[in-house]
């Protein structure tokens, strides 16, 4: 039987591609789309649904509210469906709990379950010809399923950043924060010492969670800066999460973008909210009053070596003080890497493109630094002969911080606006072949 070719094939069905499904439904093009998702059910940050953690985002900047206040998929409609709207409005909380917002997203996702093949993790993205000789995308999954699409929307989230010297040690006892809960819960029946690497919001939330666990004997928090710094929450700074800032940022030269991102870093990176900082300083003060060393903070420190004894004992970490250059060692049974995610770029912590694009790497248009060129509409238009009837496009839904600014760094605030831009481009008539650059000319 002839395999179906989907006009729009989405890889990943987290908040980004869920938001795209919402607007495609509004526009009457939902039947054009199909999605595959590696998780067995819809999930959002299940590994970081920690007690007391909130979303750090106005909940009414949701999947649809900014674009369509009458949408059945808004956060308000979710609350109303549960009879919880009055209770929520009565709360003295700036942001909703992460657990509640995750339930909202899952509630919306259930309306689109017929469009999603869950438990289908993408392993490879390649090109093949259809029966008319026109190219299309082929996505092969880890269980050898094949999905065909005219256009692909990549919504997998960014690759976890695992800095040196940790990649060779990843496993049961050394893991990224994206695996936190399932990994740490495996030690519930063991007494352990834990090292947490990083100074982000995720890092401080994990430190607080570890201190609530009776089996954790000691927590060592290691960061290269002075410690857990306060996030810049000024309304002026947080304009980076507005669509207008994307218009401002996208046309800038790559070097200017890097400088601007460094200047604005404290808005979203290596910085924390006041409430969790207050909680940790209170805990730290209590420990100091009773003479406990259960919590150790190591500012201006980086890990240069990690060793795993052959007998299965604790890891020996060699640390370096970044200013005085003194070295120390410490032992930890478990190491948690709250070290963020990779961006597209040429830096030591970057990747030039998402690993799933490797199968089409020879067709990616690259800028002067060898990084794929991504349009304002979040599309990469693959190089092709000028005579091709239509351009092949891959849309990057939530992967474009380097090209589109901090609003693309997993920020919930931009979901609706970004999905609107992608949908408008997906449904626009293709440009005439004569107006597109030829494959040979782009090599």
Tags for this entry?
443 residues; alpha/beta; FAD/NAD(P)-binding domain; 2 domains; eight-stranded mixed sheet; five-stranded parallel sheet; disordered C terminus
Description of the molecule:
- The C terminus is likely disordered.
- The chain has two domains: 255 residues, FAD/NAD(P)-binding domain (3-Layer(bba) Sandwich); 133 residues, FAD/NAD(P)-binding domain, CATH 3.50.50.60.
- The protein is globular.
- The strands form three sheets. Strands 1, 2, 3, 4, 5, 6, 15 and 16 form an eight-stranded mixed β-sheet that branches.
- Helix 6 packs parallel to helix 9.
- The longest helix has 17 residues.
- It has 443 residues and is of the alpha/beta class.
- It is 24% helix and 20% strand.
- The chain has twelve helices and 16 strands.
Q: How many strands?
A: 16
CATH A-level architecture of the largest domain = 3-Layer(bba) Sandwich
Mean pLDDT: 92
Structural class of the secondary elements? alpha/beta
> Radius of gyration in whole Å, from Cα?
23 Å
Overall tally of domains: 2
Strand content: 15-25%
Strand and helix order: EHEHHHEEEEEHEHEHHHEEEEEEEHHH
Span of the ends, CA to CA:
38 Å
Shape: globular
- Sketch the major β-sheet: 8 strands, mixed
CATH topology (fold) name of the largest domain: FAD/NAD(P)-binding domain
> Which blocks of ≥5 consecutive residues have pLDDT under 50?
434-443
Q: For the record, what CATH class of the largest domain applies?
A: Alpha Beta
* Share of residues in helices: 10-25%
């Amino acid at each position: 039987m002839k395999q179906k070719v989907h006009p729009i094939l989405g890889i990943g069905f987290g908040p980004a591609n869920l938001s795209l499904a919402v607007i495609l439904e509004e526009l009457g093009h939902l039947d054009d789309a199909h999605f595959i998702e590696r998780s067995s059910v819809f999930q959002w940050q299940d590994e970081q649904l920690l007690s007391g953690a909130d979303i750090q985002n106005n909940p009414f900047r949701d999947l649809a509210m900014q674009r369509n206040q009458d949408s059945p998929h808004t956060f308000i409609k979710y609350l109303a469906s549960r009879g919880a709207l009055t209770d929520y409005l009565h709360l003295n909380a700036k942001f909703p709990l992460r657990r509640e917002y995750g339930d909202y997203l899952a509630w919306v996702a259930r309306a689109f379950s017929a469009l999603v093949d869950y438990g289908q993790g993408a392993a490879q993205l390649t090109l093949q010809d259809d029966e008319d000789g026109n190219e299309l995308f082929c996505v092969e999954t880890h269980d050898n399923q094949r999905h065909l699409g005219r256009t692909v929307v990549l919504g997998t989230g960014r690759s976890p950043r695992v800095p040196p010297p940790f990649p060779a040690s990843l496993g049961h006892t050394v893991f990224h924060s994206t695996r936190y809960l399932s990994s740490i819960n495996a030690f519930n029946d063991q007494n352990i010492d834990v090292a947490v690497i990083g100074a982000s919001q995720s890092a401080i939330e994990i430190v607080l969670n570890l201190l609530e666990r009776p089996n954790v004997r000691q927590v060592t928090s290691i960061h290269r800066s002075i410690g857990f710094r306060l996030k810049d929450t000024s309304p002026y700074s947080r304009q980076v999460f507005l669509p207008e800032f994307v218009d401002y940022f996208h046309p800038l030269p790559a070097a200017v973008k890097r400088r601007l991102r460094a200047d604005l870093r404290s808005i979203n990176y290596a910085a924390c909210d006041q409430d969790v900082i207050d909680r940790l300083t209170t805990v730290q003060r209590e420990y100091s009053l009773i003479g406990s060393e259960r919590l150790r903070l190591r500012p201006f420190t980086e890990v240069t070596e990690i060793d795993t004894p052959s007998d299965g004992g604790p890891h020996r970490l060699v640390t370096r003080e970044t200013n005085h250059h003194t070295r120390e060692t410490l032992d930890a049974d478990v190491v948690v890497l709250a070290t963020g995610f990779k961006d597209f770029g040429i830096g030591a912590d970057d990747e030039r493109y998402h690993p799933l694009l490797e199968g089409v790497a020879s067709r990616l248009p690259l800028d002067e630094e060898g990084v794929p060129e991504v349009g304002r509409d979040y599309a990469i238009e693959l190089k092709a002969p000028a005579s091709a009837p239509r351009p092949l496009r891959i849309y990057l839904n939530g992967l474009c911080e380097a090209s589109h600014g901090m609003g693309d760094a997993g920020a919930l605030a931009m979901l609706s606006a970004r999905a609107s831009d992608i949908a408008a481009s997906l449904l626009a008539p293709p440009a005439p072949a004569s107006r597109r650059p030829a494959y040979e000319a782009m090599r």
